[in-house]
Amino acid sequence: xxxxxxxxxxxxxxxxxxxxxxxxxxxxxxxxxxxxxxxxxxxxxxxxxxxxxxxxxxxxxxxxxxxxxxxxxxxxxxxxxxxxxxxxxxxxxxxxxxxxxxxxxxxxxxxxxxxxxxxxxxxxxxxxxxxxxxxxxxxxxxxxxxxxxxxxxxxxxxxxxxxxxxxxxxxxxxxxxxxxxxxxxxxxxxxxxxxxxxxxxxxxxxxxxxxxxxxxxxxxxxxxxxxxxxxxxxxxxxxxxxxxxxxxxxxxxxxxxxxxxxxxxxxxxxxxxxxxxxxxxxxxxxxxxxxxxxxxxxxxxxxxxxxxxxxxxxxxxxxxxxxxxxxxxxxxxxxxxxxxxxxxxxxxxxxxxxxxxxxxxxxxxxxxxxxxxxxxxxxxxxxxxxxxxxxxxxxxxxxxxxxxxxxxxxxxxxxxxxxxxxxxxxxxxxxxxxxxxxxxxxxxxxxxxxxxxxxxxxxxxxxxxxxxxxxxxxxxxxxxxxxxxxxxxx
Length: 490
Fold this sequence. Notes:
By secondary structure, the chain is α/β, with parallel strands linked by helices. Helices cover 34% and strands 24% of the residues.
């Protein structure tokens, strides 16, 4: 693609004379190591690193055009005959040129944000589409998933180059229904900007990522970017009606002339009337357009009812009738690592239940424990907290575990570069009854062995993940595989 087309409609390039210099651009990136011949290199100053330090390396690797956030560096590059331009916001600029370069996108794109529930909502939405014979895809924590294909991703919301590239590939494969998970980091860093977003959903908001956002206000505002900055004109905002923040969100949408559709007990659109559980099946009764309807989901947890309602709304606004959505949802399988029930061998002498859940925030842990406490003689939990992440939530999660669980095993999650013992100490501060076991494998093993008849065991924090980050090393580790291995050897 010609440089003039990649830089199309950008105010930063108004003085460029493309008649003199308009090369054929082969790619774009912000990582100098991924730059090849005739690429554009976008120098981004991040929290831990500064891309401006790697401009020479990018040029050596074949970069033909440079984007900088530093006017002095621009001046120096110009002196040396290097073609470049200055922008005040490299991350936003990157998303703009990525959308110009990967110009084609699926016809209908939706996104879901919130502290908890994004993965469940995206997964359930995808299953509704699949059961309605709609070619579709999801992009998020579980990876890039289409019908019959799955690719692991590094982040919940990938960088803007990868996002636009994936959307372009999906369009080429004639997949026109896509649901993306929108993380607060991704929204704050413009990774989803310039996507033609038709529908945006909001699940909930609670304490998380304060290591990055610093304040709740900043965290909330980053979430709101999905609706106020990214959702296209004429798009629909789907909002949980039962949150403390609901009124504020709806007012913001109204002020910005954004159409809204709500779900929940306080909704006038898709109203939750009641629900009840039989074994591991939940029956939900709703009111839609003054008509009482019901549907079932084969997953437990009050919070999953809200996630299912949100997914129904997303699928409905993708063009599927409400009636079809309600019928299709009953066929969904278990969601990987989201209160995922592990099959217990028949030869086990005691009747116990084991669940794997991704809960890594205070609110998510509380909801998972509340759900499992309802139908168990005793409840135990194994969990830790990630290193180099929000430290304030550690004692909060310790307190929640202490209040809801009969037995608590504090172990390592992904300690990363922090001292694991310090992380465990932060959690135990508010959980005096906790048993501290450094090895996650041994903590899970001891928790299973100590389970009594009729006990529920929750293993929280890592869910679907199949690795553990300790220091600079990434080790292969899966909570689910560990549970199956322990059960096999009992």
